[in-house]
Amino acid sequence: MARVKVYRTDFYDVSNDGMTRSRRWFTREGAEQAGGTIDESTEVEVDELNLEEAGWWTRRDFNPHSIGGFQRQVI
After folding, report:
1. Contacts of 37 by beta carbon, 8 Å cutoff, 6+ apart
2. How many domains does the chain have?
3. Are 48 and 4 spatial neighbours (Cβ–Cβ below 8 Å)?
4. HSE-up of residue 67 (Cα within 13 Å, Cβ side)
5. Which of 21, 26, 53, 63 could form a disulfide with 31 if both were Cys (CB 3.0 to 4.6 A apart)?
6. Domain housing 26
7. Residue 28 in contact with residue 7, Cβ under 8 Å?
8. Alpha helices (runs of H) in the chain, residue ranges in sequence order
């Protein structure tokens, strides 16, 4: 199973004229494609299966730190 690096990513929010942290974790390529700024200090390696269909980000409210221990998916 392939592993990928994901990061917390900030985007400019016009409604508050400032940066807002996304509820998703992005790959470097995904953040660049979406126009976000990654926080390098948040780098985490996860299984590629945790990425959504496009392969550039995770589902909303994904928590990579809760992964581990017992198997949680049937593959």
Report:
1. 9, 10, 11, 19, 31
2. 1
3. yes
4. 11
5. 26
6. 3-58
7. yes
8. 28-34
Judging by beta carbons within 10 Å of its beta carbon (0-12, 13-18, 19+), is residue 51 exposed, middle or buried? buried
pTM of the model: 0.82
Cα 60 versus chain centre, distance: 9
Which residue has 């126009």 as its token pair? 35
**46 within a domain of the structure (yes/no):** yes
Is residue 34 in some structural domain?
yes
Q: Are 24 and 54 in contact (CB under 8 A)?
A: no
* 33: in domain: yes
